[in-house]
């Protein structure tokens, strides 16, 4: 029972009790008045004064029998009224005691609720304080992150600029045979090959699904210079042997093949030209050509590149690589079948009329090899 309902019940009970007490008082007053009148009547009757001299115009003559009935009723009311009043009083008292007990219990519950509210209020204030502290700390961390991001961006730009400058110089120097020998046999050759692979992979992952950056940026110049150094390494016999023999060199080959297949067309031509030239130079090596021929999915990538790439240098290097791969006697037949499945002869025939002489001549050579293969079957 709620506090409000208990108070309402208690108020109603008090009002009923007050009404009963008022009724009892009224009955008692009427009884006293009736007794007084009765006493006066008896006094007048017992006196010797004639009744005609006793009565006044306001008096009423009542028969003795009616008066006796009224006296009997008055006696009955004296007997029954205390019982009725006592029963109602006892019932009201019981209800009142119950209400007082319920009220005490409700007050106790209210006190407990107040204590619980005070406890949770304290907890809430503590939580608000903690949240405000965390917000301040988070704001400070955000400011620190912004500062670190700005510093990192500046450092990245500086590293890209420095890397672009250094690798461009290395690219020019690596045109000398002595420099290639020093790079390949040096203590840092493995780390350099890993650097080239990792840098190209990161560049491709960062931009292949996003807007391809301008090729004049320091980052792009850095990647192009690394690819140029790799191309110069593959141009030497010692460099080709190193790339085809160790795991870092083969990882570089895989990275270049993936880049050719996933980089956007007509936007990364300067990088692809160097990578395709690197792969062609590696195909001159016996170990290198076997590794390329055994690589799954290479022929579909090269065939797709011939069909879709419009840069004439990329097309020329792709055709040159295809000619090198299918000319090997060991795996040439298998690769020729795979090439015919992915590159229609109509595409090669169309390329034989290309305005670029290099593309035109290479497409004609590849078409003649395919026809020669068909005639021998």
Report on this model:
This protein is mostly helical. Helix 3 (64-173) crosses helix 6 and helix 5 packs across helix 6. The protein has 15 helices and no strands. Helices cover 84% and strands 0% of the residues. The chain has 3 domains: 3-44 and 63-122; 174-283; 296-377, no CATH class. It has helices at residues 3-46, 51-54, 64-173, 177-185, 189-207, 218-235, 237-245, 247-262, 269-284, 286-293, 298-308, 312-326, 332-342, 345-351, 357-376.
How would you summarize what this structure contains?
By secondary structure, the protein is an all-alpha fold. Helices cover about 85% and strands about 0% of the residues.
List the helices and strands and how they pair.
Elements: H1 3-46, H2 51-54, H3 64-173, H4 177-185, H5 189-207, H6 218-235, H7 237-245, H8 247-262, H9 269-284, H10 286-293, H11 298-308, H12 312-326, H13 332-342, H14 345-351, H15 357-376
Helix pairs in contact: 1-3, 3-6, 5-6, 5-8, 6-7, 6-9, 7-8, 8-9, 9-10, 9-12, 11-12, 11-13, 12-15, 14-15
List keywords for this structure.
single chain; about 375 residues; mainly alpha; 3 domains; about 85% helix; rod-shaped
- Taken from the alpha-carbon principal axes, the silhouette is rod-shaped
Overall average residue pLDDT: 83
Structural class: mainly alpha
Counting structural domains, the number is 3
Low-confidence stretches: none
Biggest sheet descriptor: none
Binned, the helix content reads over 70%
Query: How many strand elements?
Result: 0
Rg on CA atoms, Å: 57 Å
Organism: Plakobranchus ocellatus
Coiled coil: 17-44, 89-151
Keywords: Coiled coil, Stress response
InterPro entries: ARM-like (IPR011989), ARM-type_fold (IPR016024), HSF2BP (IPR039584)
């Amino acid at each position: 029972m709620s506090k409000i309902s208990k108070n309402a019940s208690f108020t109603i009970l008090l009002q009923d009790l007050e009404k009963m007490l008022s009724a009892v008082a009224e009955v008692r007053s009427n009884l006293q008045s009736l007794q007084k009148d009765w006493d006066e009547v008896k006094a007048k009757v017992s006196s010797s004064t004639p009744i005609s001299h006793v009565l006044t115009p306001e008096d009423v003559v009542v028969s003795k029998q009616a008066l006796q009935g009224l006296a009997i009723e008055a006696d009955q009311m004296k007997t029954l009224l205390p019982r009725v009043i006592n029963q109602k009083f006892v019932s009201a008292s019981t209800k009142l005691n119950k209400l007082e007990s319920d009220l005490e219990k409700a007050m106790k519950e209210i006190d407990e609720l107040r204590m619980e509210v005070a406890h949770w209020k304290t907890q809430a204030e503590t939580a608000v304080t903690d949240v405000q502290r965390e917000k301040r700390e988070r704001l400070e961390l955000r400011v620190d992150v912004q500062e670190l991001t700005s510093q990192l961006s500046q450092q990245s730009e500086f590293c890209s600029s420095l890397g672009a400058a250094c690798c461009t110089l290395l690219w020019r120097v690596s045109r000398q045979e002595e420099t290639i020998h020093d790079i390949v046999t040096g203590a840092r050759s493995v780390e350099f090959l890993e650097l080239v692979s990792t840098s190209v992979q990161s560049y491709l992952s960062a931009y292949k699904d996003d807007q391809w950056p301008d090729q004049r940026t320091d980052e792009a110049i850095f990647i192009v210079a690394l690819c140029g150094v790799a191309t110069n390494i593959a141009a030497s016999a010692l460099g080709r042997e190193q790339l085809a023999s160790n795991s870092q060199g083969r990882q570089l080959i895989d990275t270049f093949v993936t880049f050719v297949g996933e980089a956007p067309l007509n936007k990364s031509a300067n990088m692809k030209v160097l990578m395709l030239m690197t792969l062609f130079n590696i195909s001159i090596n016996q170990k290198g050509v076997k590794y390329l021929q055994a690589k799954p999915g290479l022929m579909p990538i090269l065939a797709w590149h011939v069909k879709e790439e419009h840069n004439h240098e990329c097309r020329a290097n792709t055709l040159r690589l295809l000619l090198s791969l299918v000319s090997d006697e060991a795996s040439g037949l298998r690769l020729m079948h795979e090439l015919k499945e992915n590159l229609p002869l109509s595409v090669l025939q169309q390329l034989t009329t290309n305005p670029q002489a290099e593309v035109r001549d290479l497409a004609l050579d590849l078409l003649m090899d395919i026809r020669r293969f068909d005639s021998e079957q």
